[in-house]
Amino acid sequence: MAETIVVTELEYGKGERVFREAATEGFRVVSAPRQEADLVRAVQEHGARCVVVGIDPYRGALYDALAGGGLIARYGVGHDGIDKDRATAAGVLCTNTPGALDDSVAEHVIGLMLVAARHVTEVHAAFRAGQWAPRMGRELRGKRLAVIGCGPIGCRVARMAAFGLGMDVIGCELRKVDTEQMRCNYGLRTVVGDFETAVAGADFVSLHIPGTPATRHFLNPTRLSQIGAHAWLVNTGRGSLVDEAALYDALVAGRLAGAALDVFDSEPFVPVNADHDLRTLPNVILTPHISASTVEACERVTQQVMKNVRLAGARRYEDMDLLNPDVVMKLRP
To answer: pTM of the full predicted structure?
Structure first.
């Protein structure tokens, strides 16, 4: 009998070709709504032991439905939507796909900076309105970029910016890192452990830290005030990192030149209140969480998801991209 994998609708659409091909290996892949109650219903209906999920938070019945050796395979890298403690308690394996999205997200960061530097959104809108309204832009070469969080994506951004565009890149990282290696491999002039030091004099500040309860509204009024008024904020990490009301106030007051955002506290986007709607500001560039949505990245992610599913079935836990290794210890024969 074919093993059933339940995949949330959006993620199924991104990797449909690979998921369909899985049928030749004895898997039956079905699509289901992403809401937890609907997902649990599909798991129970099909007797599935594996679900593939996106960014949405799962806090309740899903872990009970998969208890005792089930698998939650995150379609992507960030796993703040998965309750690792609850999964561990239920004996549910959790995986993600590290590295698969890094290049796509990093390219989007570079693209957003170019759009901001050349006023692309404004001149495009004017052109469509029948106006010939050229504006003077700026080169990125020689401009200072502060990369907040020097993990895999942050380092790729740094490398593209430094080696590809000739930018002066400063890293901010709490972990101890080999600064000489970071300089040689990724073009980071230096890496510091203090946000205020990192953003001093920066023309662009790009966020690449995980979304956790501890980092919620990391970019608060105090840290926003530490960024220069001529700088642009770029966020492709997690929407929860930014206090959107405080960001709105800083942009309106001219304490920040602009913001380019791909992620938001509420997705689909809902303003914190009617008086703080980022969509109304001319110095804000908005994209609907598409930094990782490229054909190539989705192909890599889907292949990596299926690799984890196969390894879970073969009980080769040491080769999986596991989030909760404590469970593995409990499940080992």
So the answer is: 0.93
Task: Provide the residue count of the chain.
Answer: 333
So what's the pLDDT on residue 330? Answer: 80
- Which of 159, 276, 289, 310 is catalytic? The answer is 289
312 CB burial (10 A radius; 0-12, 13-18, 19+): buried
Q: Which of 49, 74, 79, 238 is catalytic?
A: 238
Examine the residue annotation and report whether 238 is marked as an active-site residue of this protein: yes
289 is catalytic: yes
Catalytic residue among 45, 139, 196, 267: 267
| Judgement on whether residues 192 and 268 belong to the same structural domain of the protein | yes
> Of 277, 105, 280, 116, which Cα lies nearest the Cα of 207?
105
Give the CATH number for residue 60: 3.40.50.720
Alpha-carbon span 316 to 38, nearest angstrom: 30
Q: Active-site residue 124, yes or no?
A: no
What is the domain extent for residue 267?
102-286
Q: What percent of the chain has pLDDT over 90?
A: 96
User: Which pLDDT tens digit goes with each residue over 108-136?
Assistant: 999 999 999 999 999 999 999 999 999 99
